[in-house]
Amino acid sequence: MIVLGVESSCDETGLALYDTERGLLAHALHSQIAMHQEYGGVVPELASRDHIRRTLPLFHQTLQQAAMTQEQIDAIAYTQGPGLAGALLVGASFACGLGMALDKPLLGVHHLEGHLLSPLLASTPPEFPFVALLVSGGHTQLMRVDGVGQYTLLGETLDDAAGEAFDKSAKLLGLPYPGGAAISLLAEQGNPAIHQFPRPMLHSKDFNFSFSGLKTAVLTAVKKYPEPISDTDKANVARGFVDAIIDVLTAKCISALKQTGLKRLVIAGGVGANRQLRTALNAAAARKRFQVFYPELEFCTDNGAMIAFAGAMRLKKNPALATRDYGFNVRPRWPLHELSAA
Ligand code: ATP
Ligand code: MG
Ligand code: FE
Questions:
Q1: Which of 166, 278, 303 to mutate to test ligand 1, by most ligand atoms within 8 A of the CB atom?
Q2: What does the entry list as the binding residues for substrate (predicted)?
Q3: Residues 308-322: pLDDT tens digits?
Q4: pLDDT band, residue 340 (cuts 50/70/90)
Q5: Which structural domains are found in the chain, ordered by start?
Q6: pTM given for the model
Q7: Is residue 269 classed as helix, strand or coil in its secondary structure?
């Protein structure tokens, strides 16, 4: 079964073709980051308009890469939510129009399920069950995953998401949006002994997170330096921030593994690309004897491959999920726990 995946929830347009027999056949992506950068964040209306421009060319590019015709597609999976309403509508209406034209069935995919299952696209995928840490731009959740559609929330952030904390702290240091990767790079030059920032909820005995206080600590530190803040001071603040957030993320993963008794940890979402996080988790894995799995770097942030894959996994379990009801709807707010079991 060949599934077309369409992702348009935020500022990436992603198309992909996944074959349940042969794996990922092709994928194409356009990131709007450069377009939104001058505004310091995603402008929803600009995002929608750009998805309209990009979707069809990327679709053709994906078909060409896979050396396939559109008639060979068996089903279309599109991101139904959560995300920006206008952006979601572009992908959904494209998927529905194509489905109707080709007489192919459709499936609306939950964006976070896409992220969550993305590590299974890697060359050495984890087996179920596992503990998953989803760390993206809009979410930070620890979950127990027993299979496709079997997700138990263990804990989540009470305020900012991890990616958001990275981006907001980066902005305080004058780095362009989204600054997650940039602040991480800067931190590598910083001295770890200068700033000891708080580790919010490190000892809270649950699996919840809170990052807004950490962001305030960064702001307070930045304000103490005379303007303009020097590159060395910036790097030291970045280092303090990264060390604090990685400490918390790592510690909570370890306690979630301990509490569930599981030996496999899976990281998903954009912050999963972070080098310091990977280093800390790999070290913990060696020390505590668990296995840790990551998505391929290119599939950490939004992409069509994870949507095609999540759609294919669901359809494999339950082909009846595919619908020829082309009256699409999107769900900008869609808690993962409201997602039906596969
Ligand atoms: P959601 O999936 O929750 O709706 P999103 O789709 O915007 O949010 P992703 O695409 O998964 O989130 O990830 C984007 C986030 O990942 C941004 O906040 C970005 O700064 C962060 N990020 C990407 N690379 C890195 C990195 N190397 N280090 C830290 N953060 C990073
Ligand atoms: Mg994005
Ligand atoms: Fe995402």
A1: 166
A2: 134-138, 167, 180, 274
A3: 999 999 999 999 999
A4: confident
A5: 2-117+299-338 (3.30.420.40), 126-294 (3.30.420.40)
A6: 0.97
A7: coil
